[in-house]
Design goal:
With 631 residues, this protein is an alpha+beta fold. The protein is built from 19 helices and 14 strands. It folds into 4 domains: 1-41; 46-188, Immunoglobulin-like, CATH 2.60.40.2380; 203-413, Rhopdopsin 7-helix transmembrane proteins; 497-628, no CATH class. 59% of the residues lie in helices and 10% in strands. The strands form 3 sheets. Strands 1, 3, 4, 5, 7, 8 and 10 form a 7-stranded mixed sheet that branches. Strands 2-11-6-9 form a 4-stranded antiparallel sheet. The longest helix is centred in the last third of the chain and has 106 residues, at 387-492.
């Protein structure tokens, strides 16, 4: 019985001990959870006039990723999604997945006693769509839209960053929500600033931008003048390369949207890609021309041309699918290619390539910093963010030195060549002087000989000229005689129509013959007897200068009012004459290819005239047939 009691008593003690341990454990866990909750609790940003610039970072921002991209503010403020917000673990949060929408929650403890105007600024200018939800102090939220998808004129201030005027008329602790949706990696940089501080910062920033883009403009102008002076295409390529770099930096800073296409936000999608393509292509073309790659390194010349082709293909693919523009890291490939080309040519002894190697090397380091920043291997900072821009400036300076060094080398070579030319010219001058003296003596001797021969030749030329004149006169007379004989032979003998047509081929030649025959004894007007005339209306016709009577060449001849071609009519008369008026109209039709009826009419008329003037024709001899022409 006593043993049983001791057993029960001991068991109860153990149970009481276990309960006490449980209570202690629960209390300890509650304390740890409470302490952890205080550690993880979101820290609000307090508006303080003594701190004009405050950046939200680390435990001041909570993040919620929305993979669907469909959640609205009405769903976000519910308890279901409020517990899904996670504290920010990075100094500057980024959208890790571009397909998702990211919600950011932060708190601002307002101070109505502040004497300053405060604004909320969003730094990354490349955000496509940013929505700010501002609480009214109760349950409602006002939506404010920002981003590169909206016209620049929609902004409150004409500044490259997105800004919002804070309402600081109370001491409330307000919760703000920001939704960011962007197809490219962006940084969620939220800053609360005193407006006066912001204004001074903005003026200084735009002043630096002016210096930066002014330097690019000066480099472009310098190389453009070099192009016009030397006509080297490499300078024009470098101008276009710098313009591409300038456009890229303007897109990166938001300046391009503000000043170049403020009313066309769709161009923000293509601005980065087009500017990088221009800088990449013309940078490689500049390298080819400046380093004389085709002659100095044919292998790298082919590699650079292949890279240009592939980069162009990728650019065309980007135009089809603009999301490919986000792969900006691909620009490191052309940069590595041109850097390797410059290194190869420098090793061959081309000294101006040293500056090109240094410039491209610094540019590679700037790309490396950007990649490390993208991979979060180095902390975010102003110097790291603008590292590529700084490297661009240094690279442009070094490349300008390379161009200057190249020009100095060309000038030295030119001066050396000119010096050698002058020395050679002096030697040539001495040789020329010696030769000239020798040649002068030889020329004088030869001149005397030529003068003597010239006098002889001149005398012979005079004789030849006289002989030529006589020969010309004889030839002229011979041609006239030949022409007369030929015409006489044609008119005196039986020739075929083909041979006749060679002497009298057309109306002009026939009229000329009739004119010479008709007025062989001189012209006298039939109306008034005047012997002065002008050319008439028809070929070889004559018009009286006194009464104006126009007499045609066939008027008063056998051929007046003839309806057949004059050369055929003339040949028909010749056939009638040669046949002594016995040729038939049928034969004439075959020879002249004229209707027999027409041939019969003209043949009858000609045979009648022949019979009437038969005695006159016989006495005239060979020219007897001409007596038949005149009526």
């Amino acid at each position: 019985m006593q043993d049983t009691f001791q057993f029960i008593y001991g068991k109860a003690g153990i149970i009481r001990s276990l309960k006490s341990l449980k209570l202690i454990t629960i209390g300890l866990c509650a304390t740890i959870l409470l302490f952890a909750g205080k550690i993880r609790a979101q820290v609000p940003l307090k508006i303080d006039d003594n701190t004009p610039h405050q950046l939200f970072t680390y435990n001041q921002i909570d993040i919620l990723e929305d993979p669907t991209g469909k959640l609205g503010i009405g769903e976000i403020i519910t308890s279901v999604y409020q517990h899904q917000f996670k504290p920010n673990k990075n100094r500057i949060p980024k959208n890790e997945h571009q397909a998702s929408a990211y919600w950011y929650r932060f708190k601002i403890c307002h101070n109505e006693a502040s004497q300053k105007k405060w604004i909320l600024e969003f730094f990354d200018q490349s955000i496509t769509d940013l929505k700010l939800y501002v609480s009214d102090g109760f349950t409602s939220y006002q939506e404010n839209s920002f981003g590169t998808r909206y016209d620049f004129a929609n902004r409150v201030y004409e500044h490259k960053n997105f800004t919002y005027d804070l309402n600081n008329n109370s001491n409330k602790l307000l919760t703000y929500y920001v939704r960011i949706k962007c197809d490219n990696p962006v940084s969620a940089i939220f800053v609360v600033r005193d407006f006066r501080w912001f204004l001074g910062y903005a003026i200084s920033e735009y002043f630096i931008f002016g210096l930066f883009y002014g330097m690019i403009f000066v480099f472009c102008l310098y190389n453009l003048l070099m192009y016009f002076a030397i006509k080297g295409k490499q300078y024009l390529y470098y101008v276009l390369y710098n313009l591409g770099i300038g456009l890229y930096e303007m897109c990166n800073d938001g300046i391009a949207f503000q000043y170049l296409w403020p009313s066309f936000p769709a161009l923000n999608t293509y601005g980065f890609g087009v500017s990088l393509f221009i800088s990449s292509i013309f940078g490689m073309l500049f390298t080819i021309r400046f380093l004389y790659l085709k002659a100095k390194s044919p292998l790298f010349h082919k590699i650079v041309l292949c890279t240009i082709f592939l980069r162009t293909v990728f650019f065309l693919a980007c135009l089809i699918s603009p999301t490919l523009f986000n792969f900006k890291i691909i620009e490191i490939i052309p940069l590595i290619v041109v850097f390797s080309s410059a290194m190869s040519v420098y090793r061959m002894g081309f000294k101006p390539a040293l500056f090109l190697v240094s410039g491209y090397g610094i540019l590679l380091s700037g790309f490396a910093v950007k990649i490390l920043l993208l991979l979060k291997w180095i902390p975010y900072g102003t110097l790291a963010y603008y590292s590529l821009s700084i490297c661009f400036v240094i690279e442009m300076v070094l490349v300008s030195f390379a161009i200057g060094n190249s020009i100095r080398s060309l000038r030295k070579k030119k001066n050396f060549a000119q010096k050698r030319i002058i020395e050679q010219l002096q030697v040539n001058d001495k040789l020329n002087q010696t030769l000239n003296n020798e040649l002068t003596a030889m020329v004088e001797s030869r001149t005397r000989e030529l003068r003597e021969k010239a006098e002889i030749i001149e005398a012979q030329n005079v004789e030849i000229s006289v002989m030529n004149a006589m020969l010309k006169q004889d030839v002229k007379e011979l041609n006239l005689n030949i022409e007369r004989v030929t015409k006489a032979r044609v008119m005196a003998k039986k020739v075929d129509f083909e041979e006749f047509s060679r002497i009298y081929p057309d109306k002009e030649s026939c009229f000329k013959y009739l004119s010479e025959l008709k007025w062989s004894a001189g012209y006298a007007c039939k109306k008034c007897g005047n012997d002065h005339y002008l050319n008439g209306a028809t070929p070889h016709a004559r018009r009286c200068t006194r009464c104006g009577y126009d007499e045609s060449v066939i008027a008063g001849t056998l051929f007046q009012n003839s309806r057949i071609p004059i050369n055929k009519a003339l040949y028909m008369l010749l056939l009638v004459y040669n046949s002594k008026g016995t040729i038939s109209s049928y034969k004439l039709s075959q020879i002249l290819e004229i209707r027999q009826g027409t041939c019969w009419t003209y043949n009858s008329k000609m045979q009648k005239i022949y019979q009437e003037k038969k005695d006159i024709v016989k006495k005239a001899g060979e020219e007897g047939w001409t007596k038949l022409i005149m009526e």
